[in-house]
Amino acid sequence: MKTIFPLLMCLLPAVAEEWHVGEGKTHKTVAAAIAAAVEGDTITVHSGIYQESGLKVDKSLKLTGRDWPVIDGRNNGEIITITAPGMEISGFEIRNSGVSSLEDLAGIKVSETRGVTVSNNRLTGCNFGIYMSKANDCRVVNNEVRGKKGGEQESGNGIHLWSCDNITVTGNHVRDHRDGIYLEFAKQSVIEHNTVRDNLRYGLHYMFSHDSAYRHNRFERNGAGVAVMYTRNVEMSSNHFVNNWGSSAYGLMLKDMTDGRITGNTFERNSIAIALHGSNRMEIENNRFSENGWAIQVQRSSSDNTYRKNNFDGNSFDIAADGELDNNRFEGNYWDKYEGYDLRRDGIGDVPFRPVSLYAVVVGRIPSSVLLLRSPVVHLLDQAEKAFPSITPERVVDEKPAMRPNPLTRPLTEPSKEP
Amino acid sequence: MLKIVKYVIRDIIRSRIIIAYALILLAASFGLFNLGGDVSKGLIGMLSLVLLVVPLVCLIFGTIHFYNSYEFIELLASQPLKRGTILMGEYLGVALALCGALLLGAGLPVLLYAATATGFTLLAVGLALTLIFVAIAFLGAVATRDKARGVGMAMLVWFYFALLHGGLMLLILFAFEDYPLEKPTMAMIALNPIDLGRVVVLLQMDVSALMGYTGALMKDLLGTTTGIASAAGILTLWLLIPLALACWIFRKKDL
Residue B35 is part of which domain span? Predict the structure, then answer.
């Protein structure tokens, strides 16, 4: 028996070892600990400032920071590159990656692997924050990513997913980058409970990223809140689009996309809440549009869209269209500009509502006429047009406008607060 | 001159029309702030109210008051007083009384509900419009002896500035659609004190983002401190030119 026991021990997988990095610990640098560790080990890094960059992790480790150790790249190349599957990294403050015009340098890059978890890290002043390329089934959770606020050229994206499948991004705070969260060829991804604000270009940017969803996020004061381009089948629900305000700012821009479901979102104080360019088969339901410049701008190239049970309230213009729209159905929306009556007392207005005002058409054709906004003559012309529609698109009409605001499905949870 | 102003104001208050004006403004403003539920909506309602009602009341009231006190003016003219002093006294009396009514009727609700930069800009625009349109009313009244014609002219002036000017602007914009129109549009706006006042208030409400390039240009020209100063300058011109003309005509006039 005594001889068999050690033999058995050899057959069992090696017990994971824990390595400590820090002042007075086994290792002084993170790089040394990574070199010493083997597959399955844990490395705990204690607080302190580690001036390291170019850390390459090619074995599956658990990298944990205790009391926020800082890894400072001193603007020199990439800080951590992960190529091992099942790797976990959490609890670090990672700052100052290099900037290059040839490669995308990131604070944490995950490349050609799967099952990596990046959680509870703070990334500041990195060119790209968290960068995943050709990585599948990864999770990015509760990180705080803050860029350096340079120009659009020298600044990268906060969380960047390129050619990935099934990535979950939840509870992150991203600000001061070019795009807050960027997805290109990132299919079946889920983006939830993130707060994305003050980014130069878009808060969240989809390119060719089919079958994805984003829910319960907050997009505030970005160049444009969310841009979804060249993508099929995206669920967008219970998000807040707030204060994306400026002369070419959008809450949500849809370009050449098909099959989207936009439900239960709140759009407040955006220059243009939703812009549809060449986007088809969108279902826009149960959203609240308030105090936007334009609630919805539709281009003629967009068809088969449904707008149902939304509430429009206090927008300068509800709908703008650059001509007659094909197959865009409006039904049961609440419009604060509706002046009809309800003799049947069923909550549905008896006269149809035409949400495109004459003035909206005029402003579309001659932008400088916007200086006449809220002038009495404009009001008069709008009323005349309502009585005898001639210029406004005939088929953009809500046959069953709601008399009172629709009860909206409230967001299940509020987006997480700033830490 | 101060004596004349005092006398005119006392006379106006005694006629009670001005009190009715103040009370109606007060009721309407409180109604707007309470109905909308939301301060910014209330302010937008107030903006429409001030831009439409203030010029109308100032024009009609100013004209009628001038004709009704014609005998008093003749009496003053027989005293050793300069014609300019007489007219300015009358003007200041009417304008100050109307300004007071506006401050009571619109100022009080703004102070209570919307004591913001936008609210105060709105009030300032209202006061400026009062001064300007009383001056225009006096110019019309001095120019014609016939009361009916004078009142008719006042209404026409109101109709032009409140509605026709905007319509004409739209017409011109449509006719010259293919040309860059930002600067001509702004010049046309400056030709109408009501429009200018409206744009100044709207820029305070930060709607400039809606206005694209025009808005950016407008914000540069009017949204900054120098811009507000230049708008105030244009409005001052709108006040001084009619007033000077009225004085000039009144001085030469055979009463």
Answer: 2-252
